[in-house]
Amino acid sequence: MNKQEAKSAPLKPLHKSPAGIVVGLFLLWLLGGLFRPVKPIDGFEVKEFGSLPVLLNGRIQPLQSVGRNSLLMIRGKSGLRYEENDEKKKIEATQWLMEVVFKQEASDDRPLFLVHHPEVKSELGLDGMKDAKGKERKYFSYNEITRETNEQTAPHSGQVSSEPKNFVTLRQQAARIGEIEDQLRTPLDKQFWALHSSLGMYLALKASLRPPDSPDFVQELNTYNETIPAAMAMSQNMTDLSPQQQQDLRLLSMFFNRYQNLDRLAHILAMPPSGAEGTTEEWTKIGTSLMESMRAGEVHPAALAYAKIGEAFRGGDPATFNQEVANYRNWLSGQGYVEAQEKGRTEFFFNTYEPFYKSMVVYVVALLLGVFYWLNFTPWVRQAGFWMLALALVVHSAGLIFRMVLEDRPPVTNLYSSAVFVGWGAVILCLILERIFKDGIGTVVASVVGFSTLIIAHHLSLSGDTMQMMQAVLDTNFWLATHVVVITIGYSAMFVAGFLAIVYILRGFFTTGLDKDTAMALKRMVYGIICFATLFSFVGTILGGIWADQSWGRFWGWDPKENGALMIVLWCAIVLHARWGGMIKERGLMGMAVFGNVVTAFSWFGVNMLGVGLHSYGFMDKAMFWLMAFIISQMAIIGVCALPPHMWKSFGDAEKTASLPEPDAPVAS
Question: What phi and psi values does residue 130 have, to the nearest 5 degrees?
């Protein structure tokens, strides 16, 4: 079947077409994830524990998110995969966090930390270590990194203390590297810095819910609780203390120093205000809470609850563990923390369902169906690709809305959310194009842009919590919310136009599939989308100026981000005027649309990494590498577009040439 026959062929209703089978199978897969229960692990209700609320990065979040984000930053994955005795194993984020905070003797043996640079391995004594298959190892456990210690005499005390030898090395390297700008750091520096940061995060997690060296934290807290009243009584009269009172005072001093050190190391603010619902600022670390217990007269109920939960986990007692988690939940409800618990459960579900990962899978299938349609022009294949794209958009939209509800903010608040939103907007535009032109191009472009932007978002998530509090300079108000949404839709439109142009160039140069109708359709698509992008980019820039005037007292300050937005508007205007003035024709329009990808990518990402301006979010060397690689690829495609028409397969074919518009120069008519 040829293309014209495929477009005019009547389509069966989806439920009677082979496309319905494909779409139905993936729909069942997506729905199955909604109702699939989280099974206990060895009897322990990880869902109930993982959805407990804590405060971190300025927001209430479940413990599962703490573990998941920590693993992403340390390991680059949301779960821990490793081999043990030639057997592949996987630990989910919640289970891993439970080991880290309650059973360090197990977590310390997990191969968690990436060390791949030969010089770093040699410096830390890790070179030559191989796995069961005889390959050089890249991941090492905490115990392997800290197995050697330095014996030294503590000043003024005469006591000999021991510290892991590699800690000294890493601390010295970190002090040196900290004085070097990010852009100037060598691969060796980056490896040392990353390992130092990962170990610091791991140690902070270990001290977040209990002292790592406590053999029985429940008993320790009971002893501490018994000591507090005696100490409070002694504080009224510090003279003529009995031997027992002096012993109690020394014990209390030991506890205070111990919990002060715990407070210094801890990462999570897990202690909610007791007796009132409180605000986020009132949550404290467990060490702070235990020190304040001297004034309160008793240990915080949450500290004792976590101690009981931890000892049950350490003792391998799932029944007691589950009961203590339920008891703590009841206490939270009694204190008014119903909303915090519900938020924890909701975010736990969001993390477990992984809507953006599922969207990526469906986008790939839609892409394959779109390309397959170009090969044989089977109508139901295009139909299946269209509905698969619509299905992916539904899941993508659900994930976007879920994040908005969890954050209680607009859809775009940082680079991560902008990547999610750019892909979402692009897919909507392409679905409309596919509905109008019915040639598979909209399906292919939507799948590529949707998948690519979600991949970008995934890599951005490796830098930490993607829902943390916004920078003060970007604090939300009406004009900010409208500005970022509108201008990000402009980004989406520019990328859609650019990738449509790429389809034109690649199909025209490498295949004979760019016939007259396809070329005309692509020209209309690109032109229309650029007009759409011009409108939204211009309006978004104006809205940004209104927000800047209200927030900073000036409408325009030539900030790099402002200049980047202006670049997009100016480039759109240049393209349209060049087309209206006859300076470019079909191929020229396509080449300039592809360069629009370069302008948009630099405005979206590049200006954030310059290190200057109110919108600077910091230099990211990996992002800069991929940004430059993308720009180079776009310039290469523009170079292909500029090649003479007789080198294009679609233009060079004698039969095709007769049916195509007269080839035009890429820039000048």
Answer: -125, 160
Query: When comparing pLDDT for 490 and 153, which is higher?
Result: 490
Coil, strand or helix: which one is 554?
coil
Backbone angles phi, psi at 109, to 5 degrees: -100, 0
DSSP state string for 288-326: HHHHHHHHHSS--HHHHHHHHHHHHHHTT-HHHHHHHHH
Structure tokens at 109: 């043996």
Same domain? For 492 and 616 the reply is yes
Q: Do the domain assignments include residue 39?
A: no
Q: Decide if 139 contacts 82 (C-beta within 8 A).
A: yes
Domain co-membership, 307 together with 382: no
Residue 192, pLDDT above cutoff 70: yes
**d(Cα 210, Cα 548) in Å, to the nearest integer?**
46
* Residue found by looking up tokens 């720009």 in the block: 631
- Nearest in space to 201 (alpha carbons), one of 58, 75, 60: 75
Coil, strand or helix at 59? strand
Q: Are residues 319 and 419 in the same domain?
A: no
Decide: 113 and 74 in contact? Cβ < 8 Å.
yes
Global pTM value: 0.87
Q: How many whole angstroms separate alpha carbon 352 and alpha carbon 332?
A: 23
- Assess whether 484 and 577 both reside in one domain: yes
Exposed e or buried b for every residue in 410-444, given b needs 16+ CB within 10 A?
bbbbbbbbbbbbbbbbbbbbbbebbeebbbbbbbb
CA distance 623 to 451: 17
Q: Encode pLDDT of 328-351 as tens digits.
A: 999 999 999 999 999 999 999 999
139, β-bridge pairs = 114
pLDDT value of position 634: 96
Written as six digits, the tokens of 492 are 């989406």
The closest alpha carbon to 424, from 388, 405, 406, 451, belongs to 451
CB of 413 within 8 A of CB of 480? no
b/e 250-285 (16+ beta carbons within 10 angstroms → b) = ebbeebbebbeebbebbbbbbbbbeeeeeeeeebbb
Task: Compute the distance between CA of residue 256 and CA of residue 261 in angstroms, rounded to an integer.
Answer: 9
Q: Would you say 329 and 47 are in contact if contact means Cβ atoms under 8 Å apart?
A: no
Q: Contact, 302 vs 247, CB < 8 A?
A: no
Q: Is the four-CA dihedral 192, 195, 200, 203 of positive or negative sign?
A: negative
Residue 443 lies in a domain: yes
Query: pLDDT category, 643, cuts 50, 70, 90?
Result: very high
Max Cα separation, the chain? 111
What is the count of structural domains for the chain?
Answer: 4
pLDDT digits (tens, 9 = 90+) for 145-177: 988 765 544 444 444 446 788 888 999 999 999
CB 423 within 8 A of CB 396: yes
Are 299 and 265 in a shared domain?
Answer: yes
What is the pLDDT at residue 133? 77
Q: Position 172: which residue type? A: Q
Token pair, residue 471, equals 């920078």
The whole domain housing 288 covers 217-346
